[in-house]
Design brief:
Alpha-Beta Plaits; 10 strands; 38% strand; 5-stranded antiparallel sheet; alpha+beta; 214 residues
């Protein structure tokens, strides 16, 4: 599987212009069905809104794309939001922009700018990530190594999660598949072989990108 870009997590962002409230909701969506379910959930939650403008992009090649103006003038809302997602090379993402009309018309250009800006705020808040084949390494180690592993993680390219504190520390270390052996060797060196590898599984991993990566 080729790595692709998506949003890291669900997020909301709000933008107000000329008394109209625009509330953007964005979420990862691994399929068109998941995207439509997310859109339906937001529409049901904000059924009293003037408009709920949806868009999604799904598929490794961004082959599934859809947007709707939801009653706004044609081309002023759904398509600008969809273009924002595709311009950022994002896929497997769904977004809904909820609008509560404030009584002042924004014009076609104003609407496009407002919907696009609200969408960009939500995407920025959610964070951009790279999704790629990953390895999940289960480890058990002494408490004294947790801070050292945490300090080493950013430079070595792995993440520590699902931490359980018992007589020792149990944790899942997620790393890109191609770096599995390198990470295992680094952990072995750091702990002088005292970290016990208890499991090894494959999964898709989400790695948040920094501004330097964008």
């Amino acid at each position: 599987m080729q790595p692709y870009r998506s949003v890291f997590e669900y997020a909301e962002a709000e933008y107000t212009v000329e008394r109209s409230r625009f509330i953007a909701h964005v979420s990862p969506a691994e399929s068109p069905e998941e995207a439509r379910a997310f859109i339906a959930e937001i529409k049901a939650r904000y059924r009293d809104a003037t408009h709920n403008v949806p868009a999604f992009v799904c598929g490794a090649g961004s082959e599934h794309q859809w947007a709707s103006d939801d009653g706004e003038p044609q081309g002023t809302s759904g398509m600008p939001v969809l273009r924002l997602l595709t311009a950022g090379e994002l896929t497997n993402v769904a977004i809904v922009i909820t609008r509560y009309f404030g009584g002042i018309k924004l014009g076609t250009g104003g609407l496009a700018r407002a919907y696009s800006h609200a969408a960009s705020l939500a995407v920025e808040k959610a964070g951009i990530c790279e999704v790629r084949e990953s390895t999940l390494l289960g480890y058990t180690f002494d408490y004294t190594y947790l801070s050292k592993l945490s300090a080493m993680a950013p430079n070595c390219g792995f993440e520590i999660g699902d931490i359980e504190y018992t007589n020792s520390v149990n944790a899942i270390i997620k790393c890109p598949e191609e770096k599995t052996e390198e990470i295992k060797a680094a952990i072995n060196d750091l702990t002088s072989g005292k970290a016990l590898l208890t499991s090894e599984n494959k999964a898709l991993g989400r790695y948040r990108l920094s501004e330097n990566d964008l």
